[in-house]
Amino acid sequence: MEILKDHHNSHLLPELNDPQLKELPQLSHLGKESVEPLPDPQRLRFEIVDHHTSEGIKRLGELAKECPKPTKDISERPFVSGEKEVSDLANYFAKIFEGIDFNHHEAEAHVRKQVADTLLSQTENIDAERINSVLEKNPLIKDLTWLAKELRTYTLEPDRLEKNSRWVWDPDEQTLHKTLGADARRMLAKTRLLGLVPFETVDRLRTMKIRVIGASVAASTLDLLVALGAEDVTAVDGGFLDPSNSPRMPGIMGDFRNCGKSKAHTSQQSMQGRNPDGKYLCYAGRVVFSEDQKQGSQDVLFHDLVKDADVVFEVIDYAAGKYLVRDLMADLAPDTLVGYMGDVGSRPFAGLERPGDRNHFNQNLPKDELERMKQLASITDRNMVMTESMRAVFKMVENDFPTDHRLQFLLSRMGIIPFWSQTPMSARESASIAVKELVLVLQGKKEIIGKNLHPDESPSTLVEPFNEDEINTVNELCRQGFAL
């Protein structure tokens, strides 16, 4: 059996030794993937083409010629699908709120009154004051008013969707897709958040600068953040996708066909696929702390990565680096949040830290322990590095470490198992907690910073919680409304 290997791919291709198969044109390329430098992430960015201009038409023609299979690789489907959904929703809300002038400064109050009157007419013994108290507390009416107003503009301007539409060129896949304009796509993405996540929070998330060191544990978190509306993400990870890690990865990062590909490359493709208008850059390199540490063209200076960050997610395996990130940020950017996920056992956690507090990893570590971690980078003996690094990682999660995972981690420390176990369920759960925490911080709830939360402690609501009387009102409305 002939084994062909390179640092990107590893193929077992005994079947290609058959001369008859090698003569087939459709198989002639197999096993001949060249070892090429990973492309600059700027070159992987989707290109947005405005075909309503002469320059755009010209560029669209040039790109169309590059598509290998035009009938397959050029599609209007995303636009047609979006156009139908916008039209259906616009017609629906135009009928529901037919008598409301959404340009009036009291449009929101008029929508609230219509909803309250509907509830009053279909229930008994619940007065208007109680109903209005819950409608005013929740962002549902405010955001519903905005949505209905926005949709009405498409009814009044039937050609608005087409005018704002764009073609999106994927340079990696060499495909062209027509899509809705950015505003229409953002609007549709918000619709399913009505009453559950305030739209203004999503708008804040969109402009938030998110920086990431490591793309494995952070993959699910980034997927959720981008799905929720994040549009400014820069990540660095020099690793490649392994088959054993596929179960933990979201979307195309977990596709077996992408095993052996760059984590950074695939992560950028995944995020751009969710939102072609976002600024997503993923470097297939390392985060280094000085110019002389750079080895590859995609290595990124730590200072350059975090200098404009609103939050930095650190999820690397290198213990000395984990400490150094926090130690440097405590001086360089003491108030820039550090996000941290731990896919430990079946009780994962996520936390946000303020580096200036020097409560690294939210573990309340004593000064002598922090000093011991600080010395990791200066240890030269290989065996001592391994011993001290494993010990440090244990201390970084000790207060949140389930017993079952402690046993597995111990065997890893003893060299019996060459990896740390992590489940797909924990990857999704820790990501969900991390995103919820960030959403609450964007709403001004800073008390969540400085602690690690587990699934049973995860925020149960992302809007202003109802008080006891309001809960009783909602429950009574549901009891009558659903004839329970």
Summarize the helices and strands and which ones pair or pack.
Elements: E1 3-5, E2 10-12, H1 19-22, H2 41-44, E3 47-49, H3 54-66, H4 70-73, E4 74-75, H5 77-96, H6 107-121, H7 128-137, H8 140-156, H9 160-164, E5 166-170, E6 175-179, H10 182-191, H11 199-207, E7 210-213, H12 219-228, E8 232-236, H13 263-274, E9 279-283, E10 287-288, E11 300-301, H14 302-306, E12 311-314, H15 319-332, E13 337-342, E14 349-353, H16 367-374, H17 382-397, H18 403-413, H19 424-442, E15 452-453, H20 468-481
Parallel strand pairs: 4-6, 7-8, 7-12, 8-9, 10-11, 12-13
Antiparallel strand pairs: 1-2, 3-5, 5-6, 13-14, 14-15
Helix pairs in contact: 5-8, 6-7, 6-8, 7-20, 12-13, 12-19
Q: How is this structure best described in words?
A:
A hairpin with a 4-residue loop joins β5 and β6 (175-179). The chain is an alpha/beta fold and 484 residues long. It has two domains: 49-196, no CATH class; 199-375 and 422-457, Rossmann fold (3-Layer(aba) Sandwich). The chain has 20 helices and 15 strands. The chain has helices at residues 19-22, 41-44, 54-66, 70-73, 77-96, 107-121, 128-137, 140-156, 160-164, 182-191, 199-207, 219-228, 263-274, 302-306, 319-332, 367-374, 382-397, 403-413, 424-442, 468-481, and strands spanning 3-5, 10-12, 47-49, 74-75, 166-170, 175-179, 210-213, 232-236, 279-283, 287-288, 300-301, 311-314, 337-342, 349-353, 452-453. The longest helix has 20 residues, at 77-96. The strands form four sheets. The chain has a seven-stranded mixed sheet with strand order 9-8-7-12-13-14-15, sandwiched between helices. A four-stranded mixed sheet has the order 3-5-6-4. 45% of the residues lie in helices and 12% in strands. α5 packs across α8 and α7 (128-137) crosses α20 (468-481). The termini are far apart.
